Amino acid sequence: RTSAESRIEEFTDEDFIRASTECLEDATCTVAEIAGKLGCNSRYAKIRLLQLSEQGKIKKKLKGTTWGFRP
């Protein structure tokens, strides 16, 4: 048995399900994803999304160097 296999068994199915659920609760969409859905320029989308965030209409979160947005 490898050490990787041993580590996998340290976590239950419920641990993985709970972690997945927590990630989805914190999920965001990138500017590029939103711009793609709208068919608009990413720079324009970023400006508008940041404005909406500052108005309290949506939430933003910085992940690394990329902004993520969510309702």
Describe it for me?
With 71 residues, this protein is an alpha+beta fold. 56% of the residues lie in helices and 17% in strands. It is built from four helices and three strands. The protein has helices at 3-8, 13-25, 31-38, 42-54, and strands at 29-30, 59-63, 66-70. The protein has a three-stranded antiparallel sheet. Strand 2 and strand 3 (66-70) form a beta hairpin. The protein is elongated. The termini are far apart. The model has no long low-confidence stretch (mean pLDDT 91).
Order of helices and strands: HHEHHEE
H/I helix tally: 4
Mean pLDDT: 91
Q: Which strand order do you get reading across the main beta sheet?
A: 1-3-2
Low-confidence spans: none
Helix fraction, binned, reads 55-70%
- Give the CA-based shape: elongated
Short description:
With 71 residues, the chain is an alpha+beta fold. It is 56% helix and 17% strand.
Q: What layout of secondary structure does this protein have?
A:
Layout: H1 3-8, H2 13-25, E1 29-30, H3 31-38, H4 42-54, E2 59-63, E3 66-70
Antiparallel strand pairs: 1-3, 2-3
Helix pairs in contact: 3-4
Task: Spell out the key features of this protein.
single chain, 71 residues, alpha+beta, 3-stranded antiparallel β-sheet, 3 strands, 56% helix, 17% strand
